[in-house]
Amino acid sequence: MKKLFLLIAASFMVAATVNAQTTAASLRREIKLDKKDGKKMEKKEERKALRKLEGSEVSYQSKQAFEGDFNHITPISSKRLDNFDEFTFTNKKGITKSAYYDGDSKLVGTVEDKTFADLPVKGREYISKHFSDYTPGDVIFYDDNEFNETDMIIYGLQFADQDSYFVELKKPGEKIVLQILKDGDVIFFTQLT
Question: Could you give the CA distance from residue 39 to residue 187 in angstroms, rounded to a whole number?
Fold first, then answer.
């Protein structure tokens, strides 16, 4: 009887050990999928759904938030877009940027014009090697507000927000946009007409 009991207990222990190892391996695979250049990327709990903003005027709350976020800089212009309130301004360093606020008047991120030379070296080298028949065009840099879960829309596409460069590449009959992450990784973003 004792042998039977020990045999059953041993089989439960073996099953528990195998299950624990399988779970650990599964978690390691999941973490590997979430890694980018050795850093664990934090998964955002729930993405905020973009909603169409009512009216055609920038909200008072967004104006107040902009003033607070950018130390009372007077915007060059402001306008209501479908999903965001946009403020274009020149910062104290003389750089012109656009700031975007969601329906809750929270900063989503900023966009500024850049040049091809501003791209990370790894990204420039990749583009030069794999897209040598294209001519670089406009380049922008999107700086995400990490404290806001709202995704940004660039080139008409909503994307998982992270600081990124976007570069337009052209050749006769074709125009594409590539997303270049700050570490230089290049991702095809969209094709323009």
Answer: 18
Nearest alpha carbon to residue 100 among 115, 89, 91, 92:
89
Residue type (1 letter), 28: R
| DSSP type of residue 49 | P
0.85 exceeded by pTM: no
DSSP structure string for 21-33:
HHHHHHHHHHHHH
Of the candidates 71, 109, 115, the one whose C-alpha atom is nearest the C-alpha of residue 92 is 71
Tens-place pLDDT, residues 130-157:
999 999 999 999 999 999 999 999 999 9
pLDDT over 80 at 48, yes or no: no
Tokens 């991120």 identify what position? 109
What are the structure tokens assigned to 163, written together? 């600081």
